[in-house]
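Researcher: If only I could read C-alpha cells as easily as an amino acid sequence. Walk me, if you will, through where the backbone shape changes along the chain. I have put the entry right below:
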Amino acid sequence: MLRLFADQDFEPGQGVKLASEELHYFRRVRRAQGVVELFNRRGQRAKGSLKSGVFFVQEVIQDSDSALPLSLAVALPDSKVLRELIFSLSELGIRDLKVFAGERSQAPKSRISGLAKWDRWAIESARQCGRSRPLSVEVVSFESLLKQKAQEAFYLDEKRDTEAFLDLDFFQKSSGSAGSLVVVGCEGGWTDAERKALRSSQFRPIHLKAPVMRVHTACVVAASAFLCRASLAQ
C-alpha cells in the first residue's frame, strides 16, 4: 500500500484533491497503480479510491498519537546533515524538531528560512516509516528555547567535566506528560555565553561518554536513549 499525504482533515464521502508533488510521487513510484491510503497531520488515515488526481474517501481511521514525548532542538547544521537528521529522528518517533541559529552554526543564518523544504522531508520520511503523522519541524530562536516548558530540559555538551547522561537513574525516571527537551549545539560547540544562558534557565548539562560526536550522531544517540527509556517504562 502506498501512503500519500494531504494537509487537511478527512471525512467519509469527501473528495480530496492531492497536491502535484503527491501525484508525481504516485506516478513515479507506482506508475499510477495500486492501493493508496492518505495520512495527515492529525493522525487520520483515509481509505478509498484515487481517480484523476482526486482521492474519494470511504473510511477514516483515527490513530493514537504514538510519538515519543521528546522535543529535540539543534543549532542549524549544513543542509545535507539536516535532511539526514530529519529522516533519522522521524524514524525514531520523536514528537518534534526545533531548529535555531547558534553562535557557531556551520550554515549561514540566512538558510534558517528553509522550513517548507524541511517539512517536505518530514512528510517523505513519515510516508516511508509509517508514522501516524509527520515529524513537526519548526524554526525558533535560542532565546525562546530557554523559555520552553518541559518536564525536564537538557543540553548536550562536549565538555568532559559535565555529568553523565546514560546512567541507571536516568532510565528509571519518567519524563511525564509534559515531555522532555534536549538541545544540541553545532559542530563548533557552545560558546561560553550560550552555556551560561542554558544553565541559568535550568537546563541540565549532559556529556555522552564517547569521543566527540558529529551533530547528527549526537542527536540520534540522545533520541535513542529517550526511546529506550520510554520502552522500559511500558
The domain at 2-62 is CATH 2.40.240.20 (Ribosomal Protein L25; Chain P). The chain has a mean pLDDT of 87.
